[in-house]
Amino acid sequence: MAEQKTVLSPIPGVFYRKPAPDKDVYVKEGNTVKTGDVLAMVEVMKNFYEIKAETDGVLAQFFVEDEDLLDAGQEIAVIIEQ
Amino acid sequence: MIKVINPGLQTTIQDYGRIGFYEVGMPPSGAMDKYSYRASNLLVGNDENAAVLEITYMGPVLEFQQDVTVAIAGGEIPPKINDQYVPMWETLEVKAGDVLSFDFVKQGARVYLAVAGGIEVPLIMESRSTYTLCGIGGFEGRPLQAEDHLKIGNANQSKIAIGTRISDELIPVFSKTNEIRVVVGLCSYRLTEESKKRFFSIDWTVTTEANRVGYRFKGERLNFVEREQPFGAGSNPSNVVDLGYPIGSIQVPDGVEPIALLNDAVTGGGYATICTIISTDLDKMAQIKTNEKVRFVAVDINEALEARKLYKDKINQMKKQVLGQIGGINHG
Questions:
Q1: Among B9, B209, B290, whose Cβ lies nearest the Cβ of A49?
Q2: Which residues belong to any copy of the Lipoyl-binding domain (chain A) (predicted)?
Q3: Which of A46-50, B157-161, B298-302 tops mean pLDDT?
Q4: Which residues of chain B neighbour A7 with C-beta distances below 8 Å?
Q5: CB distance B158 to B45 below 8 Å
Q6: Mapping DSSP to helix (H, G, I), strand (E, B) and coil, where does residue B268 land?
Q7: What ipTM was assigned to the predicted interfaces of this complex?
Q8: Are residues B142 and B91 in the same domain?
Q9: To the nearest whole angstrom, how far is the Cα of A30 from the nearest Cα of chain B?
Q10: Alpha helices in chain B (DSSP H)
Q11: Contact (CB, 8 A) for A27 and A39
């Protein structure tokens, strides 16, 4: 059976699924991702931190909405490993 | 040398601060949580003003290229040497080739990494602290980047036994809801009585704009007393004739989102400062994260001085514990 890997945000901040407001999302739910792919971005202290996939698989679901405020360690998505 | 493999989110070199230039507009910079900063330096036998790494939210990955004694103190960002967890608030030994990394932040916002001898960078206006807004001090005036190589200095005074620990009762615990003590003034007369009451009776949430310069809070709008605009003051009701801003002072531009000015903030300006965080609680402020809550509590100057006395007692106890161990038992 496929393993599920939860993606966490290491830092608090504003969650973004797009690299810029007029761009498309990094990843759509259901898309295949590879280790190192950027999944989302978190903004804090005027820094932008890219959240990257740490496993290969299918990004099954995001648990947070674009521009939501995150806590450090919050679960943001789940990847089903392949 | 220490090689930076990954810099973390914002890692800067800081010492006690660039003290004595405030009147010419130079903020002190320096470690934001001085208590944890002091603990880290003490545990490696450094001189009290030695430069350390201030790590915020997310730790760096560092490769040590020489054997050295280190200590990590502050909020809880669990450190690992070669992927094995190691304690904070304790004197540790690293060998050449060891890699120091950190787990996700568990509590607090900042940790301090001291190495015996201190981080060696040029003194700028008598300090090694990084002031990023001006691009001076620390490592080329900026946060660390991958591939930087940090030199270790000779700011150590004593040899501390590996395994020396700060006892639990002297280790601060950080929370997601915090009381921060303030002394009311200098321009609190500008707020309406109602707004003054509201300021002290609601929970303020730290926004994403919270860094070494200042912390911005979300809560509710505050209102100012109507007045005729004085000569030299801006037209907004939150403006006054320019004044020096105390470190830790809180202003409310336009009545929305109070800002606490911290170590890297502008030293003066024309916003009414309604209160000032007492010096001992600046350490606590530095450990509060975006999204966490703050309730401000008004104290008078005597209570502030009493708090400072207790704080100094704690530092002295810490010194006794650590320096009392010299030549003592090696707990490692």
A1: B9
A2: 6-79
A3: B298-302
A4: none
A5: yes
A6: strand
A7: 0.81
A8: yes
A9: 27
A10: 34-43, 193-201, 279-286, 301-323
A11: yes
Closest CA to B295 of B210, B215, B175, B179: B179
Q: Pick from B290, B291, B292, B293 the residue to mutate for testing the A interface (most A CBs within 10 Å).
A: B290
Q: Name the class of domain A4-81.
A: mainly beta
Tens digit of each residue's pLDDT (9 = 90 or more) over B122-133: 999 999 999 999
pLDDT band at B327 (very low <50, low <70, confident <90, very high): very low
Residue B117 is classified by DSSP as T
- Please indicate, yes or no, if residue B319 is contained in any of the structural domains: no
Q: Are A19 and A37 in contact (CB under 8 A)?
A: no
Q: Is the dihedral of CA B314, B55, A47, B27 positive or negative?
A: positive
Residue B332 predicted with pLDDT over 80: no
**Tens of pLDDT, residues B160-177:** 999 999 999 999 999 888
Q: Sort out which chain B residues have CB atoms less than 8 A from A51's CB and list them.
A: none
Inter-axis angle of helices B279-286 and B34-43, nearest 10: 80
